[in-house]
Amino acid sequence: MIEVDQVEGVKEMDTLEQYREQLDKLQNGDLDKLYISKEEFLPFRQLLVARPDFKHFFGIAQRGGGVIYTYMPEPRS
Fold first, then answer.
1. Closest to 51 (Cα-Cα) out of 77, 21, 14
2. Over the range 31-62, which residues count as b (16 or more CB within 10 Å of their CB) and which as e?
3. Backbone phi, then psi, for 57, in 5-degree steps?
4. What are the backbone dihedrals phi and psi of residue 29, each rounded to the nearest 5 degrees, phi first?
């Protein structure tokens, strides 16, 4: 499991835990999509790529630097 001091740009445990919760909700179907702002992207991505189900998450870049993530039942190749 990734700890706060391992994720650059995350200063508080609450933020890291919120990212985990949002990813879990996306995986479980409680959320259809998740918007991550340009400022949140790098610390969020460090947490995302450490997950074993990383390839199930699909991100679409938005104008202005944000990303909208969805969860796919089948992992991307």
1. 21
2. beebebeeebbebbbbbbeeeeeeebbebeee
3. -85, 135
4. 90, 5
Quote the tokens at residue 33: 């999509």
| Tokens (6 digits) for 67 | 């990303």
Span 35-72, pLDDT tens digits: 999 988 988 999 999 999 999 999 999 999 999 999 99
Type of residue at 27:
Q
> What does residue 17 show for φ and ψ, rounded to 5 degrees?
-65, -35
- Residues 11 and 35: their CA atoms lie apart, in Å, by 20
What's the rounded Cα separation, in Å, for the pair 7 and 47? 7
Q: Work out whether strand 57-61 and strand 34-36 pair parallel, antiparallel, or are unpaired.
A: unpaired
Beta strand extents in 6-76 (DSSP E only)? 34-36, 57-61, 67-71
The pTM of this model reads 0.81
